[in-house]
Specification:
disordered N terminus, about 40% helix, two-stranded antiparallel ribbon, 9 helices, about 220 residues, elongated, mainly alpha, 4 strands
């Protein structure tokens, strides 16, 4: 998983704040959803698909969370994003049409999450998830109690934050761009806020070039 932070934008490995419900949400999503559930209290997957009123709020979800995935902390181009029901529709149908149950995320990570039990982005505290440089692997932060550490590790595993090469390669690629001066810290803050927070926290704004040079050399050597 890569994470969110409303203090620097939105994402998942850093805290995410629940944003205000849009004015149109009740009329466009909740009311028609509740009417459907009143007739069909235990909908099947196909029945939910035919009554996916939450899609009416997609634009508002993107805007409210600055187009950053709550689980990967990556800026999302609209076609690649989706609304995740944090509490699954299959097990919590009454929350299927509730704004507070929506998390903006990438299609890919949404598929990994499925019905897995992961830490809610809204419940994450600063420092629970950190990055190891230059590997760009997500790890539990230092000083966590055993229970929290286990939950963090389980979330990383369930969302495949380190097991999906697409996620890891993206973090490495963007950090290489930053190290080489192709993108600035401002770019990271908007497009990869988790990377930005970790760069600042670890104090490598001016030393990333040296840190990632070895990684670049290793990559070139492997392809030679």
């Amino acid at each position: 998983m890569d994470r969110i932070c409303r203090t620097i934008r939105s994402g998942k490995l850093i805290p995410v704040t629940l944003q205000l419900e849009p004015h149109s949400f009740n009329v466009n999503v909740r009311i028609p959803g509740q009417k459907f559930l009143a007739k069909t209290p235990a909908p099947t997957h196909e029945e939910f698909k035919r009554n996916s009123f939450w899609k009416s709020a997609a634009k508002e979800v993107y805007e409210a969370y600055s187009r950053v995935c709550a689980y990967t902390c990556r800026y999302i181009d609209v076609p690649n994003g989706s609304i995740d029901h944090f509490n699954s529709k299959s097990t919590h149908p009454l929350q299927a049409y509730e704004w507070s149950n929506f998390r903006l995320c990438m299609h890919r990570v949404n598929g990994h999450k499925g019905t897995s039990v992961v830490i809610d982005p809204f419940a994450v505290l600063p420092g629970w998830f950190v990055l190891d440089f230059p590997s760009c692997l997500v790890k539990p932060g230092a000083g966590l109690d055993e229970q929290t550490r286990e939950r963090v590790e389980a979330t990383i595993k369930a969302l495949k934050l380190n097991d999906d090469d697409t996620f890891v390669q993206d973090r490495c690629d963007v950090m290489m761009m930053f190290a080489q001066g192709d993108v600035a810290l401002g770019y990271l803050r908007k497009h990869r806020p988790f990377l930005a927070i970790e760069v600042v926290r670890q104090g490598i704004e001016h030393t990333a070039g040296t840190l990632f040079k070895k990684l670049g050399d290793a990559t070139e050597g492997a392809s030679a």
